[in-house]
Amino acid sequence: MKNRFMLYFHPLSFYSQKVVLALYEKEIPFKRHYVNLLAGQQNEPWFLEINPKGKIPALKDGDKVIVESDNIIDYLESTVQSVVTLVPDESFEVGQEVSRIRKLLNCVKVEIISYGIIMHEELSITGCKLPFYVQKTMKENYGARLGTMLKLAEKNPSFRDTYLSKSQQTAQRFEQIMDIEQVMQELEDLEDILDEMETLIMSSSEGSSDYDQELWLFGSRFTAADISLIVLLNRLVMLGIDSRYFSEDRRPYLLKYHKQQLERASVGRLLKEIETIRKTIPADKCHCEKNNFKPMELLLLVILQIQIYLKM
Ligand SMILES: N[C@@H](CCC(=O)N[C@@H](CS)C(=O)NCC(=O)O)C(=O)O
């Protein structure tokens, strides 16, 4: 069991954090391979052999590769014996509800919100907590991604389709992220989702007579839906927008939930890992590409965007 799993991930990556928390909760040992997104390692041919979509996390179990954070969590649930159940059986009502909440939280456009805040700093209330050079690299890399993908497609023709499809996604996302109105709309849409979370936590606490008891989305039972919510709340804190969504006056149950999750051992381990990473990546190790397209790349950007519009 000790050497069974290899996780390709990065502690700062939102979707990786979900899987890491699940592994910690279930106390499943795993080998780690950090994929440095700032350096574009997710697009290197060796990683595309593992996940042709060029996304982390990816879990290797022997020769088998599992991708998509929720799929990985479900896979761990069904293949590893553990006393901890994160994904209750869907033949019970609680299992169906956990599944519904996981899907609902998956609808949050985390990439648009995160990059949107980094691109439009004025949307953050207390300021993004990511180190400045990380924000700077994220900003510059996003703008340069299209050019990078086109160069990679030329250099590694066997992955040409992957790079071209990623460059299409990038062009579309870039437009959304740069449009402050769209980013503000995503922030607004989050209000309804968090209202639902507040109601769930409130009803969870109404069913309990013990004030000090830990209460999660589904009572005292901690599930994969809590993992999805915890990672989201911590992302809001990192972006400096948490006070918009939860405080003593606004969604107090969510505030209590947020404080409680910080005390959880698995979360503590992950936050410590994030802190170590933040301290150890020196600025000069970050590979920054300037956002200056060559004329040919600009032309391709325009063509890709026209293709995207035509498909809509
Ligand atoms: N739906 C996927 C999303 C994975 C994802 O978007 N991962 C991000 C990091 S949080 C990534 O690898 N981005 C790199 C890229 O798109 O080039 C999941 O749940 O695992």
UniProtKB/TrEMBL annotation:
Q: What name does the UniProt record give this protein? A: Ganglioside-induced differentiation-associated protein 1-like
Annotated Pfam families:
GST_C_2 (PF13410), GST_N_3 (PF13417)
The transmembrane segments are none
The species is Octopus vulgaris
Name the Gene3D superfamilies for this protein: 1.20.1050.10, Glutaredoxin
What InterPro entries does the record point to?
Glutathione-S-Trfase_C_sf (IPR036282), Glutathione_S-Trfase (IPR040079), Glutathione_S-Trfase_N (IPR004045), Thioredoxin-like_sf (IPR036249)
Which residue stretches, if any, does this entry annotate as coiled coil?
none
Which Gene Ontology terms of cellular component type are present?
A: mitochondrial outer membrane
Q: Which residues form the GST N-terminal domain?
A: 3-84
Q: Which family does it belong to?
A: Belongs to the GST superfamily.
